[in-house]
Design goal:
The protein is α+β, with helices and mostly antiparallel strands and 368 residues long. The protein folds into 2 domains: 3-315, Deoxyribonuclease I, Chain A; 332-367. It has 8 helices and 15 strands. A hairpin with a 2-residue loop joins strand 8 and strand 9.
Amino acid sequence: MDSITVRNLILYHLFFNVIDSIFFCNFFDVSGDTQYDAYVLAFQECGNKNNRDAWIKTIGNELDLGYTILGRVDMWEMVLVIFIHSEHVRFISVVETCSEATGISIAKKLTGKQLGNKGAVAIGFRWHDTPLCFIGSHLAARPERVLKRNSNYQQIIEKLSLKMGQDLCVGGKSGKRAPQLTHVFEHVFWLGDLNYRLDHMFSHAVNLVANGDWSKLVLADQLKREMKSGRAFAEFHEGSLNTCPSYRWNRTEHQFSDKRGQSPSYTDRILWRSMPGVQHDIKTIVDFQTHVDIFGSDHRPVSSGFQLLLRLPYVPLPGPVSNHRYLLQYFSLPLFSTLFFVTLFVLLFLIRYLIYFLYQVVGQDHVS
């Protein structure tokens, strides 16, 4: 692809099931050499809105002054927020948010209502000419509830809806539905406490972690099994899990907590999915990692860094231009259409006037 038609971006993703943690800035890569174009941050169990506001305000203070909030969406105790470097704001359009609750049912068969203690929030937008979507979610808990987690995923992927997708509604008048977000946005990133567990005994999993035997540890990972079978998160990808599980830890010590013999697990994940033809536009530049030194919660934060290739808008033009490129960047189609029709109107007016003038001249010659 021509280098003029694309733009490389560096994105930092972080997820943390906060519970009672106080803020720590050392899970942000803000002091290194990498200049991130955006920070995508998802938090859960943050408490009430005042607590969520305090977290986001503190994060904003920790980041460079060059960043601003592009979008934020809350549902109950979860929040998804995207900080973007100010230089990119003018290249972003159609910023939207939505949410889907999958929690405790309130006579669901009659009301169709569920509480937002579980579910997902999403932010979608167009960056240059590339539509992107970011989802933060919290799925059903407990090791044995794999099918429930799969059901949560199906409900979220089917019912999360943004206007960019609603414009492509299919079906009859009585049953119109928007296509799934994965069919609307070229790239979808999914962060959250997905709650899939490792089917190990507690002591065996702890020994594998102590030996750094990540490959044997993930052999019993429920999410990888469900992804491989296509029962949930089909065609999504994730980085290697060469790091400690993010759950369940002692809140004040560097030690796993034994909750009824449950195995430490990679409950907190960062996934992504791309449309056909653009799968290679995403590259992991910072491996998925668990920040085991952040205390306060029985979860530990997880993060990863990505390089994303964006497509710039352009209109092909006939004839040679400079550097033999047939490209006009940031060309305004509405302006082009307006100029075209104004020019056409003027030409038609001149032609009509010319015909009238010739008719008058020829008519006078006939009379004389």
